[in-house]
Amino acid sequence: MSAKKRKKGRDETPDESADGAAASEGGVPEDAAPLAEDGAPTDAEEVDELIAAEDADVEVSESGNSLDADIDHILSEAGQAEIAEYRDRAARAEAELANFRTRVERDRAANRDAVIAEVIRTLLPAIDDLDRAAQHGDLEGSPLELVAQKLRTGFEKYGLRKVGEVGEAFDPNFHEAIVQLPKPDVTANEVGDVIEVGYALNDRLIRPAKVAVFTPES
Questions:
Q1: 124-159, pLDDT tens digit by residue?
Q2: Is 169 left (phi over 0), alpha (psi -120 to 50) or beta?
Q3: How many CB atoms are located within 10 Å of the residue 113 CB?
Q4: DSSP string, 153-194
């Protein structure tokens, strides 16, 4: 038995003995499958294929970073557009609020003038009576003279003014012609006489003046 074993040992080839020795010493056989960097087995048959696969992973990773950057850029642009839209809405809302306030103030002033005009209109008969008394000299030195002065002063503070004076041009917007009298030296219609004084509150006509009108002779 020992002879056969020795013979069998002599029949072994040097290459096989070297491969065994290399394997026993921790070497890697030439036909062994290559390993990845972490020591795990890989399906790549060549080392170049393994390197190419690792390079591909790097490219995919760089492409992923670029995609993340594109997403961040898109989100940033969307956020800026949304902020701009909100600013535009706020500006329009502020302008609408300012216009609303202007309309409210204008309507408030118009309503105020309308109320004052209505109050004065109801008091016009009393004012007419005081004016007639003043023309006849009945107010001078009487207690009513002071009352008439206070009424006129109070109404003037609100912008009340008389309409209709002799010699001014006839204006149908403020004058009501009761009678027309042709006159040789007149070139345009003018107020010849005031029958009843008119009143206006600022630009609002409360009562037109009733007048006699001088007209040019035809």
A1: 998 899 888 888 888 888 888 888 888 888 888 888
A2: beta
A3: 16
A4: HHHHHTTEEEE--TTSBP-TTTEEEEEEEEETT-SS-EEEEE
Instruction: Report the distance separating Cα 212 and Cα 186, nearest Å.
Output: 14
- The token pair at 183 is 């006159």
Q: Are strands 198-201 and 204-207 parallel, antiparallel or unpaired?
A: antiparallel
Q: Say whether 62 sits in a helix, a strand or coil.
A: helix
Q: In a 3-state reduction of DSSP, which class is residue 199?
A: strand
CA distance 134 to 119: 23
| Tokens representing residue 52 in the block | 């190419």
Q: For residues 149 and 143, give the distance between their C-alpha atoms in angstroms, rounded to a whole number.
A: 11
Query: Could you give the 3-state DSSP secondary structure of residue 204?
Result: strand
Alpha-carbon distances of 176 from 50, 77, 190, 208, 216, rounded to whole Å: 111, 70, 12, 6, 18
Give dist(CA 156, CA 166) in Å, integer: 21
Return d(Cα 76, Cα 82) in angstroms, integer.
10
What is the pTM (predicted TM-score) of this model? Answer: 0.53
